[in-house]
């Protein structure tokens, strides 16, 4: 009895080993390695983006190599160069700034490693340097912020004095959220951008810049146009410390629509939050696998987004994912 059982078990184990060996070989054929260079950890948006990429990789069976560039282009270039040396299958990165990528992307091209941009675009005429860009339309986001201002102040003769907290200098979202706003308000002289400065997409940066704006312009300020929620939250702190009432006597326009931004809307301190989704991980994994399988990808895999108003924030907040 015991012996039969023992033999049966051994046979079963052997069969299982064979199955797992052949499955393993098959899976190894398909396993692709993706080298990803992240911008940094400057904002809640970025933290959610990193989390999305890291959790999507194992779920998709992608071997992910991840590096945080601490908001420095030189670190991203180093990371990309090391991914080339490691002969990864696909390189993806979220470019901290728009310009200066041609030389390193030429190296990737020479090594025949396809490149995917995520979140932020680059400024280049050479379309062969990357396969696709997965992310938002920042210009449209800027227009949406501008349209909200137009609508909100349609019966007001002005002047409407705007202070702008810009994102990282030279980054696509900072350039485009600015340009989108200008495009909408440029023909209406009552809107004036009286000051514009970078807070580098961080809460501390937003607070510091807003402290200076509050000192210099005081109650001349009608609107704070902050390129992300973290800077808006920092600016709110600065305004409150200066005895101002953000969301009431000063309207606050922000971007991302993170949970922190939503909470500030619920508290009446941000008036409108233009959505920008960081949850790009699953799309990035899919695109990497498609590329490895020789499929053709669209040049731009665009994120679907909307605009959230203060009045709806409490109701929508529980459904927010980042
Ligand atoms: O808006 C900001 C982050 O590139 C869209 O970067 C991203 C921006 C986002 O630091 O919070």
Automatic annotation (TrEMBL):
Check the UniProt entry and state the signal peptide residues, or none: 1-27
Print the keywords alphabetically: Signal
Entry's Gene Ontology molecular function annotations: carbohydrate binding
Keyword Transmembrane helix present in the record's keywords: the answer is no
**Entries under PANTHER family matching the protein:** D-ALLOSE-BINDING PERIPLASMIC PROTEIN-RELATED (PTHR46847), GALACTOFURANOSE-BINDING PROTEIN YTFQ (PTHR46847:SF3)
The entry's cellular-component GO terms read: cell envelope
Where is each Periplasmic binding protein domain found? 35-295
Q: Name one Pfam family in it.
A: Peripla_BP_4
The UniProt similarity line reads: Belongs to the bacterial solute-binding protein 2 family.
| Matches recorded under InterPro entries | Peripla_BP_I (IPR028082), SBP_2_dom (IPR025997)
Q: Which domain of life is it from?
A: Bacteria
Keyword Signal listed? The answer is yes
> Where does it live in the cell?
Cell envelope
State what protein this is by name: ABC transporter periplasmic-binding protein YtfQ
Q: What gene name is listed for this protein?
A: ytfQ_1
């Amino acid at each position: 009895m015991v012996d039969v059982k023992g033999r049966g078990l051994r046979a079963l184990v052997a069969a299982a080993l064979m199955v797992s060996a052949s499955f393993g070989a098959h899976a190894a054929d398909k396993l692709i390695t993706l080298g990803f260079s992240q911008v940094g950890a400057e904002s809640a948006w970025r933290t959610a983006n990193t989390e999305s990429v890291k959790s999507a990789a194992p779920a998709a069976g992608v071997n992910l190599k991840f590096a945080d560039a601490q908001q420095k282009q030189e670190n991203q270039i180093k990371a990309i160069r090391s991914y080339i040396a490691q002969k990864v299958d696909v390189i993806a990165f979220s470019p901290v700034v728009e310009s200066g990528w041609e030389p390193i992307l030429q190296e990737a091209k020479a090594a025949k490693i396809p490149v995917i941009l995520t979140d932020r675009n680059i400024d280049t005429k050479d379309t062969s340097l990357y396969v696709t860009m997965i992310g938002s339309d920042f210009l449209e986001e800027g227009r949406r912020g501008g349209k909200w201002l137009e609508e909100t102040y349609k019966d007001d003769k002005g002047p409407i004095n705007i202070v702008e907290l810009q994102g990282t200098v030279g980054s696509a979202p900072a350039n485009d959220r600015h340009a989108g706003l200008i495009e909408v308000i440029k023909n209406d002289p009552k809107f004036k951008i009286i000051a514009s400065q970078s807070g580098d997409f961080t809460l501390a940066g937003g607070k510091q810049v807003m402290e200076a704006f509050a000192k210099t312009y005081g109650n001349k300020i009608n609107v704070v146009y902050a390129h992300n929620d973290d800077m808006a939250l920092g600016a709110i702190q600065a305004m409150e410390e200066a005895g101002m009432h953000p969301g009431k006597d000063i309207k606050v326009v922000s971007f991302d629509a993170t949970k922190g931004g939503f909470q500030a809307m619920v508290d009446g301190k941000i008036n409108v939050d233009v959505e920008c989704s960081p949850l790009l991980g699953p799309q990035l994994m899919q695109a990497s696998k498609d590329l490895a399988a020789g499929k053709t990808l669209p040049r731009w895999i665009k994120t679907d987004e909307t605009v959230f108003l203060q009045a709806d924030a409490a109701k929508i907040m529980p459904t927010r994912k980042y």
